[in-house]
Amino acid sequence: MSLARADMAARPILEVSGLSLAFGGLRALSDVSFTVPEEAITAVIGPNGAGKTSLFNTISGFYRPQAGSIIFAGENLQGVRAPQRAARGLARTFQNIALFRGMTVLDNIKLGRHAHMRTGVLDALLYWGRAQKEELELRAEIEERIIDFLEIQHIRDAAVGTLSYGLQKRVELARALAMRPRILMLDEPVAGMNREETEDMARFILDVKEEWGVTILMVEHDMGMVMDISDHVVVLNFGQVIASGTPREVQGNEAVIAAYLGSGDVGEIARRIKAEAA
Fold first, then answer.
1. Residue 94 domain flag
2. Mind listing the pLDDT tens digit for each residue in 174-212?
3. Are residues 121 and 166 in the same domain?
């Protein structure tokens, strides 16, 4: 491997530096800095109110920070709007499912590709030439790759509103994958799921990384899953990064333990966390 290629492989795909965000007198993020390695799973964890969703909304362009920078694949995203960030390869799911409940699974997934469509208004109205070709190519890719990959062939024509919560979360993941992401941002992907659904989602997330080569940035409260599948963990508390490292390093960090469970016997609390994650 050449030195230039080795340097590109080592360079993080996302660099967050000195990010600060406030709403009036409420400071949601304060000087947050971390990096996301390419083709890895990075989890952002922290107690409720730590600033995790605010961080996601800032990275994806819904909030504008007062200070700091976000560098994605070497490009500073300052001034780049949310739809443009999506077109560059930043795809995400949401803590609260954001699907069109009256539309079919297939139609919801197809909406994920809108940022990459080249069809003009006239083409779309006539549904001929480029519009028809794009539609057929999109449908083939979704059906042959995404739907089969996520094992949702049996519900492809069902209205989303008729599906169980776990299946709706899977459809939302499918829509994000239809965006052809370079980074897939997952906001609490297994919240509200039972154990079987959680295990299925964890398997899909690992496969997205390993088979598709997509980088994962994930906010999640399920510590068992975080410790099992993450390569790197960033811990937020009161809008600040208090720890980062491998799951093992973070698991034994006294500041992390105190943030989650308050003061007490740190050794005993650490043993409880390890037992719950096992």
1. no
2. 999 988 899 999 999 998 899 999 999 999 999 999 999
3. yes
Do residues 77 and 11 both lie within one domain? yes
Q: Which are the contacts of 271, defined by CB distance < 8 A and separation ≥ 6? A: none
Do both 30 and 152 map to the same domain? no
Q: What is the pLDDT of residue 125?
A: 44
Which of these three, 126, 161, 179, is where a domain ends? 179
Q: How many residues does the chain have?
A: 278
Q: For 45-65, how does the pLDDT look when each residue is reduced to its tens digit (9 = 90+)?
A: 998 889 999 999 999 999 999
Place of tokens 């009256």: 102
Domain shared by 144 and 74, yes or no: no
Identify the pLDDT of residue 114: 60
**Domain count along the chain:** 2
Last residue of one domain, picked from the residues 134, 158, 179: 179
Query: Which residues lie below 8 Å from residue 190, measured CB to CB, with a gap of 6+?
Result: 169, 197, 198, 201, 202, 220, 222, 225
pTM of the model: 0.81
pLDDT number for residue 229: 95
Model confidence at 158, in pLDDT bands (50, 70, 90)? very high
